[in-house]
Amino acid sequence: MEGNLVGKINNQIEMETPNNITIKGILGLLMANTEATDMKKVISLGMGDPTLYSCFHSPDVAHDAVIESLTSHKFNGYSPTVGLPQTRKAIADYLSRELPEKLCADDVYITAGCTQAIELALSILARPGANILLPRPGFPIYALCAAFRNIEVRYFDLIPDKGWEVDLNAVEALADHNTIGIVVINPGNPCGNVYSYQHLQQIAETAKKLRTIVIADEVYGHLAFGANPFVPMGIFGDIAPVLTLGSLSKRWLVPGWRLGWLVTNDPNGTFKNPKFVERIKKYCDICGGPATFIQAAVPRIIQQTEDVFFRKTVNLLKWTADICCDKIKEIPCISCPYKPEGSMAVMVKLHLPLMIDISDDIDFCFKLAKEESVILLPGLAVGLKNWIRITFAADPASLEEALGRLKSFCQRHSYQQNDHH
């Protein structure tokens, strides 16, 4: 009897676990393949966690606010599952600064990081037969959440030569009456793109035409340092309903605090339907949000962080993005079709015909980790085979060292170099 039960459980696990690649999973395997020596420390440009480098540190006011809320002993209990009222209000006010219609606290749901906001969005929208339109390349957690919720994933391509803009014709061709949303990541992960006001408006118009919503992932909101300023998708909420997902993680450099949000930007009231609100609240009851004392610190963090802190972060990212692109130009076998203008990462194309003994992007990244102790993310992890994602949120010295090793590796593995011997 017991044997049958174990067999049954194993079959269920076998059947129901999605086989999606995750960024953390593949980076763990790559890390296990590195060999650190006294001469060569491991440098990871694989994870979008700037706190790994001492030049990126969160503002003092954030730490002070957390200490204050913790030592007050007022925030050791449960918070409402949708979030503390003052936290919801502070985020509504913060996001409203750039929106035509003011948000209220009830439009905001506090989540454990942006990852939980993704899970919340897909779970409340899921229904039998549903499909969702995801960007390729994109952030793989969307497809993983969709797999657990039995939502069919349909990919539309981002166009590298057009600043990774959305292929709107592909979006129209993919959508049908079962499409529950179009996901837009801006500023872009993994591409470093920042969409123009006009392009975001076209996306909203397309969603309206297709009678669907936009899920706007703005986890890298405001981290823009190129020609286009950051424009929140919520500006176009009167054209098509927008679910905005965001967090403190990147702009405040505190990814480990797990403080995110899901916000309904929707002047026409589609999301105000009592059944929809009830559904969100019930899902929040299941999943629980971030620690209460971190939530309690949010109003002070948002209100008292000075602009000089944000400017410093953006200037540093601009500098490291420039270093990254300049160094890539010197490296044979790889090229960057679009210089990043925001976020913390860039997509780089591998030219495999120029390389010997490298079969694909996975092979490239594993051999690079083993030979040079440098971690980069294979493009396959974000949906684009034979590309690689490089995170440039690193201190300039480590970045230059890593890209120098990448250059040596590419030279060793290129036909051109080997023909000279």
UniProtKB/TrEMBL annotation:
Residues where N6-(pyridoxal phosphate)lysine occurs? K250
Pfam name, any one: Aminotran_1_2
What GO annotations for molecular function exist for this entry? L-tyrosine-2-oxoglutarate transaminase activity; pyridoxal phosphate binding
BP terms from Gene Ontology? L-tyrosine catabolic process
The UniProt entry, under SUPFAM superfamilies, shows:
PLP-dependent transferases (SSF53383)
Q: Which top-rank group of organisms is this from?
A: Eukaryota
Q: Has the keyword Transferase been applied to this entry?
A: yes
Q: Where is the Aminotransferase class I/classII large domain?
A: 40-406
Q: Which UniProt keywords apply?
A: Aminotransferase, Pyridoxal phosphate, Transferase
Query: Transferase as a keyword?
Result: yes
Which Gene3D superfamilies does the annotation name? Aspartate Aminotransferase, domain 1 (3.90.1150.10), Type I PLP-dependent aspartate aminotransferase-like (Major domain) (3.40.640.10)
Cofactors required: pyridoxal 5'-phosphate
Signal peptide start and end residues: none
Similarity annotation:
Belongs to the class-I pyridoxal-phosphate-dependent aminotransferase family.
Write down what this protein is called: Probable aminotransferase TAT2
The organism is: Solanum pennellii (Tomato)
Q: Which gene encodes it?
A: LOC107031866
